[in-house]
Batch of 4 targets.
Target 1
Amino acid sequence: MLEDLVEAIRKRRAILFAGAGVSMTLGLPSWSTLIEHVAQELNLDLSEFREGDLNYLTLAEFYRIKQGSIGPLRSWMDRNWTIQEDKLKASKVHELICKLDFPIIYTTNFDRNLETAFDLHGKDYVKIVNAKDIARVREGVPQIVKYHGDFDNDDSIVIAETDYLERLSFESPLDIKFRADALGKTILFVGYSMTDLNIRFLMHRLWRTWAGSGYERDRPSSYVFMLRPNPVEQTVLEQWGLHVLTEKDCPPERALEVFLAKLLKETRKAENSSDR
């Protein structure tokens, strides 16, 4: 299974789709910390809600209604989600992502950590947040597509319930770009909790697009890296044509780094073999 992924990366026909787990390796605040901050700012007593009765999407929607805009929350997140450059340069996960040289990286993270890592490792890139940015794409230059928005643009951020529901139409310029990119390339999802409904919907839509095309057998392989083995999730995801990868004998906090290091090693080995 890894051979096909390595070959796609070597031929620059693979897309990386990176989630919050990539940034969490740097010790960034969790979504539960975000919920606690919003509750404190709005004087909400979280103990009044049973577990599962309140999620961050609904709470962010409530925040926007009460505060009039998401701006103050975005500012707080920007301050708390920004990592010092020396710590970011020491991040093996970010270094490995740079070295794997994906031609396109989609990320649902609002922070600038991927872009800063590219800067620190001397790699050029084009950041894409909206339709206007798509016109800036340059041949041979990696693209970092901020699929759920960017801290530099409040209007682009997908954080509240309405934002997510509107994205479920799958018809925004970035959705159209993703469909075009994904139809011809291998996709590797890393850093996601499989409880993320938006990403699950995206995976399902991708599967349905191929299933309805009549050419499902020609679909490039796609992969999901999970920190822990989960046979229930694996069965469901494989039904949608996604291969599940794990590092079984590795602590979850190190699993992504170990996996990416293995991927880089195998990719370079394949490159050396092809040069002979």
Target 2
Amino acid sequence: MLVFNCTKTAAEFFTVTRQGKKQSPLEKPPTPAIIDTQHENLPVSSWLVHAIKVQRKNVLIAMHVHTRYAMVFTGLQKGNYAEFSRQWLERLFNNMQFFGKQFELCDETSFHTMVEQFIRQNPNPCFCQRGDRSVQSHISDVVWNIEYLADETGGLPEDLVQASLFDESINSTLRSTKTHKDYFHPDEEMFLEWISQYGKLDRSEEPQVREYFRALRLQMPPLLPVPEHQDEMQGITETVLRNNFEGKPARVDNVIDFQQARANKKSK
């Protein structure tokens, strides 16, 4: 089950009044606590969503409760929770597919299977209002980073490439929680959870994946090949969004090539 736990500002963002009637996706929390990982014997993917204003634009921050993996969304219209869900899913698929192909742990066919497994376990998102101090403290750090970026560059991420680069930056930052014995990188923990939950990664393979991440942090990621089954991947993603997330079809144009994106940024 996919749960979007909303802070007060996020709950207000997703709630609108139209023709005198209040409209909101918020419902009763499905589990007693935000950190619960099971609901009716099914796994729970719990996220905390927070809303702020930066340069008079709406900014939403979604952070995974257990791995502290975060994604930032800008320019969304108030009350449009379907569009938020669409962009959230599009970004997560792109970011996870990047690491899967980078480490040669999946191809188009196997990633297709992971997407289907994700939808079977998370058919529709649940929006509810509640928070968590520990997660909120890490979200506050992301808020500082997005505000600093806006001040330094004069703007916010405007497209999938820019947003994914920002995601990469904040998720490669070391973090700590009471439930983790050591410091950790959110991108590493999130990918391990993703591929273990929806792929076929064996526990014995986890140390090798961590080695891949260590090597990746020491060098720029190499160029990725263009997926051979791009049309098929486009089709499955659009179907998922249309049938399960009540949003218009998304454009998942290829795994984000961080090296080329950085090169383009430097050349400007």
Target 3
Amino acid sequence: MSDRAEGADGPGVWLVVGLGNPGPSYSGHRHNIGYLVAEELASRMGSGFRAHKSGRADVVEGRLGAPGTPGPRVVIAKARCYMNESGGAIKALTTFYKVPPTRVIAIHDELDIPFGTMRIKLGGGDNGHNGLKSLRSSFGTGDFNRVRVGIGRPPGRQEVADFVLSNYSATERKEIPFQVDAAADAVETLIAEGLERTQQKFNS
């Protein structure tokens, strides 16, 4: 599909952003749960990521929904830059696809939610999360949707930065596929049924 065709759907498009850091050395970190969910959604679309013409993100385009009843057009995105610089790359995508912030869904790790649970909300601050901080700065607003995947607080006196930039424990890794699957389900429900229904169904 050409880049010209990509931007043709205008305001009907949803932009789903998996927040994380690029490269194999970060792939198993708690901070990269957004990437994992984005990859699961791409798998459900049956497509692989490719470079967007901006050169700053990888994207998958398609429709999320049950076979025979395709939903609205969706772009799944992973920024190619580090978490604290991701806002500019995602802002460029919202401009290209003509997506307002209220049709952006950011998937990210959340310290204040226990591991194995999640919360979905629209708007809010960044709570010290560098990816959210970058998005809010680039958008000029915090009024975008968030799928907040719980990672819990670091044990003992471990620094937060060390905790989020470390791999899940062996026990947690067994649960990650279920957590990723549930978060992907929440994204699909948010797009298909709206915020209130999604919160009722998934907010733990």
Target 4
Amino acid sequence: MGISREKPGPGQESVWDYPRPPRVENYPGVVVLEFGGQEIARTQRAMRVLETSHPPVFYVPQADFAPGTLHRVDGTTWCEFKGAATYYDVVAGSARAERSAWTYLEPTAGFEQLTGTIAVYPGRMDRCLVDNEVVQAQPGDFYGGWITSKVVGPFKGAPGTWGW
């Protein structure tokens, strides 16, 4: 495979030290989502899901989204760990990002704390920030990982990484 694990520096985490199956943990910092030129969510109650080879996926309480920004759409996908995902378009002003947010209405055992939270693909938003740092989107279009200076890879998602 030729995977060369990056060594984390002080204050960093390696995604290769994250567990499989994934772990959910509270995140005490400030998470902000911006879309359509507006701040659509701000929270200090985020959670993050940590899974081997993936940057963290941040989940924001639905109650912390601006009213009217989430529009449920048809269709679901299945996560082997968390269960059935339900999708939303994110809308702010005249901007719409189709199927850019998701939730688990009835997460499977071990992931119940995700109930009532929403994740977004950071690459489909104007900006996502974690403690004032602008997030980079995980490569590829399948995963919704948030890359900050606090995590090192390599990260799954780019072409050629599906077999990891």
